[in-house]
Amino acid sequence: AQSVSQHNHHVILSEAASLELGCNYSYGGTVNLFWYVQYPGQHLQLLLKYFSGDPLVKGIKGFEAEFIKSKFSFNLRKPSVQWSDTAEYFCAVKGGTGGFKTIFGAGTRLFVKA
Amino acid sequence: DGGITQSPKYLFRKEGQNVTLSCEQNLNHDAMYWYRQDPGQGLRLIYYSQIVNDFQKGDIAEGYSVSREKKESFPLTVTSAQKNPTAFYLCASSHTRIRGWDTEAFFGQGTRLTVV
Q1: Beta carbons of A100 and B97 less than 8 Å apart
Q2: Given CB atoms, is B110 within the 8 Å cutoff of chain A?
Q3: CB contact under 8 A, A107 and B48
Q4: pLDDT value at position B102?
């Protein structure tokens, strides 16, 4: 069955540090890939998405992600984090063996020190 | 405004009682989903539905039931058979197509259920 692995469960960074969160999914084929973010006390919202075309995807708040098909990966990056980026980040995949369902990873809690 | 409405935001239940969580969407999405969120475990799929009067079990369906009598509504019942029901429950909806720009799932604000 389709699954998603996020490499880091907890990440602590200082402001202005660079961020990279790893994400791998298990089965290929036609997939849509997503990163969602959940700020403290808020609902889940979409950060960015990939469905075709340029494998480097830019999202909101300066985030970007790169789809590498050969590695089944979709890592999230940000060159310089801010305190306000403190949140939980979820990688998700739709398609492949999962069909129209969206399958989520376990999440990464990011804490940015001011 | 289009979106997904979950109610109530907080819910307390006594052990042995069934409780129903509401989810309504006005996004005209065919697919609806229920996820359970626990710390360190991400979002785990409970049930999903592709069309009215049809739904499928997800990864953790035991102790839960759903119905899909209307396209807009997908209520979740947490039964007394669910051994560890205290959790944060999220409802979502999406188009069923995989190809295309607008394939992402949209989420409600969630319901926090506590068994007392």
Answers
A1: yes
A2: yes
A3: no
A4: 76
Residue A44 C-alpha, separation from nearest chain B C-alpha, in angstroms: 6
Q: Please check whether residue B94 touches A, CB under 8 A.
A: yes
Residue B43 DSSP class: E
Q: Please name the residue that has the structure tokens 């039931």.
A: B65
pLDDT digits (tens, 9 = 90+) for B26-71: 999 999 999 999 988 889 999 999 999 999 999 999 999 999 999 9
Residue A16 φ/ψ region, left for φ over 0, alpha for ψ in the -120 to 50 degree band, beta for the rest: left
Cα separation, A109 vs B39, whole angstroms: 10
The length of chain B in residues reads 116
> Which of B42, B101, B108 shows the shortest C-beta gap to A107?
B42
Q: Work out the mean pLDDT of chain B and round it to a whole number.
A: 92
Q: Which residues of chain A have pLDDT under 50?
A: none
Q: Are B114 and B86 in contact (CB under 8 A)?
A: yes
| pLDDT band for position B97 (cuts 50, 70, 90) | confident
